[in-house]
Amino acid sequence: MAEHQDFASLLSELEREQKGPSQQNLKVGEKVRGKILSITSEHAFVSFGAKSEGTMDIKALTDGDGKLTVDVGDTIEAVVIEKDEETGTLVLGDKGGSHLRGSAEVENAYANRLPVEGLVTGVTKGGVEVQIAGVRGFCPVSQLDLRYVEAMESFVGQRLSFRITKYEGGRRTNLVVSRRALLEEEQRELAEQTRSRLEVGAVMQGTVTSLKDYGAFVDLGGIEGMIHISELAFGHVKHPQEVLSSGQQVEVAVLRIEKTDNPRHPEKIALSIRALAKDPWQDADSRYAVGMQVRGKVTRLQSFGAFIELEPGIDGLVHISELGAGRRIGHPREVLNAGDQVEATVLSLEKDKRRIGLSLDAGRMVQMEERGGEGVRTDFARDNQAPEQSLGTFGELLKESMAKRGR
After folding, report:
1. Which pTM was predicted?
2. Looking at the domain that runs over 29-94, which CATH code has it been given?
3. Predicted local distance difference test score (pLDDT) of residue 1
4. Domain residues of the chain, as ranges?
5. Which CATH superfamily is domain 103-183 in?
6. pLDDT digits (tens, 9 = 90+) for 167-220
7. How far is residue 259 from each of residues 5, 29, 189, 203, 256, measured CA to CA in Å?
8. Burial of 171 by CB count in 10 Å (0-12 exposed, 13-18 middle, 19+ buried)?
9. Rounded distance, CA 400 to CA 289, Å?
10. Domain spanning 284-389 has what CATH number?
11. CA pair distance 358, 340, nearest whole angstrom
12. β 374-376/355-359 pair status
């Protein structure tokens, strides 16, 4: 009984290994995946299971230098480009586009919506010229890429994959092709794979596709998401181009996924780089202590005080009462400008509330200007004609500040 069960298990496993698409069910234009059985000087023989085999031109498996890119036993993806109804023999082509040899193959590729390989030979009004099997074709600029192409000249000389969208034979062949159609198909297939991994909290790799004032768009693999400018970093970012560039590879976290009624963009995906970075406030108390002297840059001026960036993600606040150096002022801009480099003293630290209180001691309030490579200090107390007697030690200024608050 046990032996019978073992034999049954082995037979079932063998059937699973040999399971593949039936040769009779495959149609021209279908994509297939199989293993290379053997390679000759002209063809490679590919198996898709116990009952399905096909041949593939060796040229489709070589690079530009004529070097073979695969070996026996490798698994490849291909497209059925021809089928002999009498023998059932399948002829395969590269899924990226087959190199055609004549008008008959061009017509077959058009009838079966097969991808074809073409050479972009020049730029014409509204698009580019493409040579396919010795036939001159036309690709409109709108069909050259997924996004509008401004510099069509950059495509000249490239061998690319196209789909034939219009073919009229005869003395004057009318051939129109589209590269975008194939790219959109690839994008849809890739999007399905990406959606299987897409969930809130997932960490994914992506490519920056464009930068806007409000954020950056990232291709996750057939699907685009957006990083709002506030999610780029812990520090202040005025424009995404300060931290990112188009084409850059980034790691992002998925914050939100919102369904839409747009069939082309069925979801809005909010992404974040900041969520993957260490929060600088986690150990802020180990770097900042009351009484410590720090240096930072003025980032914002409000009626109640000035915000000083001590490091990306950590700002301290200098209350307006701490800015006058003994002189009453109406607004921080009377003393400071955004972008000023200043030295300050830590008055308070509330880690849980993400607050650091600062004081700009008159004797330490400086604006750093680059002149001949040397930092030049400008004494704000002197510039604002603050009386000398108002300059005291940090302890005296602190006592005075506390006395004012106690009134």
Report:
1. 0.57
2. 2.40.50.140
3. 45
4. 29-94, 103-183, 199-276, 284-389
5. Nucleic acid-binding proteins (2.40.50.140)
6. 887 777 789 999 999 999 888 888 988 998 999 999 999 999 999 999 999 999
7. 49, 33, 19, 20, 10
8. exposed
9. 21
10. 2.40.50.140
11. 15
12. unpaired
